[in-house]
Amino acid sequence: MLLHDFFVKYPRLAIAFSGGVDSSYLLYAAKTAGCHVHAYFIKSRFQPQFELDDAVRLTDQIGAPLTVEALDILSFPEVARNPADRCYHCKTSILRRLWELARSDGFEVLCDGSNANDDETDRPGMRALREQEVFSPLRDCGLTKDDVRRLSESAGLFTHNKPSYACLATRIPTGTTITEELLDKTERAEKTLFHLGFSDFRVRMLPPGNALIQVPQAQLEKVLTHRDEITESLQPDYSNIMLDLKPR
Questions:
Q1: Residue 97's CB: how many other CB atoms inside 10 A?
Q2: What is the pLDDT of residues 151-189, one digit of tens each?
Q3: Alpha helix locations (H) across the chain?
Q4: Residue 227's domain is classified under what CATH number?
Q5: In this structure, is residue 40 part of a structural domain?
Q6: Residue 204 falls within a domain, yes or no?
Q7: What phi and psi, each to the nearest 5 degrees, are found at residue 52?
Q8: Domain for residue 174, yes or no?
Q9: Nearest Cα to 169, choosing from 221, 91, 247, 64?
Q10: CB neighbour list of residue 205: distance below 8 Å, 6 or more residues apart
Q11: Quick one: DSSP state of residue 66?
Q12: Domain of residue 37, CATH code
């Protein structure tokens, strides 16, 4: 199936929107195809502020309607206790709320930005998409991440080279209860590296309260260059600050 064919079949659709590469292109493609489309962004403590900022910027760029809905994701016990399948429970909670919003606006089709590289065996959240009857047009049409980046660049979308970003909860070890405090620490740490010019990085929490910085190989030396700034910023929140010598 071609993406155009999907839009012909479903000319009215809601999109679970993250402001990332994939959902941004899907939203652009649907709007360009003449669909009646609406983007819905769920803001929880798992998303840093820059993700919402990017979502607003992208929808403003292409002139698409956006609804932002706050969700207290930590109020769901099966999410907060952080089991191995946390992503499944989190995604299910979010999709249920998205369906409520979409249906209240008259939409009966909900899509997400999963692409052909997304392997269901590696992502528990993919099961939630199937159970909640959410379409993944990019994936169904065989579009890979590289395809989406190339098409996004041709379309002039600023998201075309945006690094992939996993939510803040992924920085906390499985089995460790997720709290506001741990999420705040993680967001502060990653904001420091972001402002120092790092990209595609992670600051993971290692018990008992240590930080493990992971960056691409090309940025390893840069960590040492900014050692003092990083240490000064992260020390109030972490007992020890470590650098992973195996690059991301």
A1: 17
A2: 999 999 999 999 888 899 999 999 999 999 999 999 999
A3: 3-9, 21-32, 49-62, 77-80, 86-104, 125-131, 137-140, 145-155, 180-195, 220-225, 227-234
A4: 3.30.300.90
A5: yes
A6: yes
A7: -65, -40
A8: no
A9: 91
A10: 171, 172, 173, 176, 182, 185, 186, 211, 212, 238
A11: E
A12: 3.40.50.620
